Amino acid sequence: MNDEDWAIDPDGVPTAYYLTGSREANGRFTYYTADAGYDFLRGSSYKAGAFVGWTYYGQKSDSIGCIQLALPYYPCFGGSENDNRTVHKRTVGSEDANWNALRIGLTAESVLLDRWRLSAEVAYLPWTDFHGRDNHLYRETTTFLDQRGSGGGGVQLEGVLSYFITDTFSVGVGARYWARWTSRGSEDFGSGRNGFGTFHSANDARYSMERWGTFLQASYKFD
């Protein structure tokens, strides 16, 4: 994880730039999607349809260690003495991001040869909602940033190639790409237990996420 910060003078002019790097640990993500749709084209070896639904994506991760990337001789802030020698042993931060979005899309499926099936879907996200918390733990007083965003949009693409081992059981390999973003957002800074000292710090925040990869799946169809 890279963390960028700018020091700004009272006139709003940047005076310094800081960039630190940390290792990620204990990361996990959760997602679900619920759709309702209708196949408007259907044949013996293909079908195509449209759907509308809702999708959720959440990600939590911890960052361990700290190294200066922009100013190699500048210490990573933390603790009463800013002891840079022990930073690599400690958890320095955590991220909690949650996305909800409406989705509208098209889906298609075709049978290839005897037991092969190719399916694909594309979804447009006309509205997104984001909330997250960025915790800074390597400080004398724990600080955090509460983040909110909405509006924006996104896209979800997915394709799966499946093989039917039997008439009802199949295995497949797929690829997907997800992206979403907000058009407006805010950020509140807090410190201490239960947010003591919280104050509003930004109205022009923007948030975005991008994820892509491959996956394996198994499916059983009930007659």
From TrEMBL:
* A molecular function (GO) term: aspartic-type endopeptidase activity
The record's listing under Gene3D superfamilies reads: OMPT-like
Task: Name the InterPro entries on file.
Answer: OM_adhesin/peptidase_omptin, OMP_A26_sf
Name of the protein this chain belongs to: Protochlamydia outer membrane protein domain-containing protein
| Organism in which the protein naturally occurs | Bradyrhizobium shewense
